[in-house]
Design a protein that fits this description.
This protein is an alpha/beta fold. The chain is built from seven helices and 18 strands. Its main location: secreted.
Amino acid sequence: MGHLHFLLHFLLSLSCFSCTVLSWNSQQLYRSNNYEGSSDLVNLVYHMGPVLASPINLYTIWYGNWNPAHQAIIRDFLISLSSSPSSSSFPSVADWWRTVRLYTDQTGSNITGNVILSGEHYDTSYSHGRYLTRLAIQSIIKTAAVAYPRPLPLNSYNGVYLVLTSSDVMVAEFCRAVCGFHYFTFPAIVGATVPYAWVGYSGTQCPGMCAYPFALPKYENGAVWTRSGNRRKVMGAPNGDVGADGMVSVIAHELAEMASNPLINAWYAGDDPMSPTEIADLCVGVYGSGGGGGYAGMVYKDRQGRVYNVHGVKGRRFLLQWVWSPVRKRCFGPNALD
């Protein structure tokens, strides 16, 4: 869930995140202890609700004044979720989604592997202002659904909605308690019950909190300490923009949880459905093998110093946090060494 996502980011940053970066060309990998959040004590429970087993029609709402280059980074990530093996090198974004697909509903149906970017709406007029409450996010979806002359379909069968706010939009608790969140809409506001998520652009508002590991809190002075005690600079964003690349990992986090817990009654740990610990919350800050306990894990680094762990369409590279695997009982991603 969004608030836990932010708090874990903050607490782990206090304990000095570190990350081993690996050259994709040299592939000089080394073994380390298998942390990755592994534990038999994690009580992730299925609460009998639905998962997103039908092909997902994803509708994106760009709220505010967006840089087209930033939109292209995010759009290419979304397209990469269902890309064919021929369009992306291994490990790919689609390979990362395969861990999410391991979750099933009460009929035994797995989460779908078919995520289609089915529509986009551009709310450049700030229809609900530049200061938004959480509930206002639902009103933005409603506005998009009745927009003239090109309304966004209100798809209550297999529609999922992603509201992305630009750098000049303030959302309640953004940068203080959340980097993003997901929930479901209320029919009284939107006209139907559909899963949705919101993520804000943090590149100018709070990159050190919501765009880790491409930025660090100001008190870290642009560097972290590795396990060996060496001083290391922040890592390079794989597509050249701290805010957009940071958003991609938060979007991945929220989409994974929305697919496995769309109505907040499916897969989560904890006793409070209003504050669940979901499959991505369990792995915040883990991006590669050996990750955990304030160590991000082994990832790749290109010749320009940009860090990533998966490939996408059009030659894109992304750094996505891992999610909890119900089979391995630990955090896992396709760049894992085992």
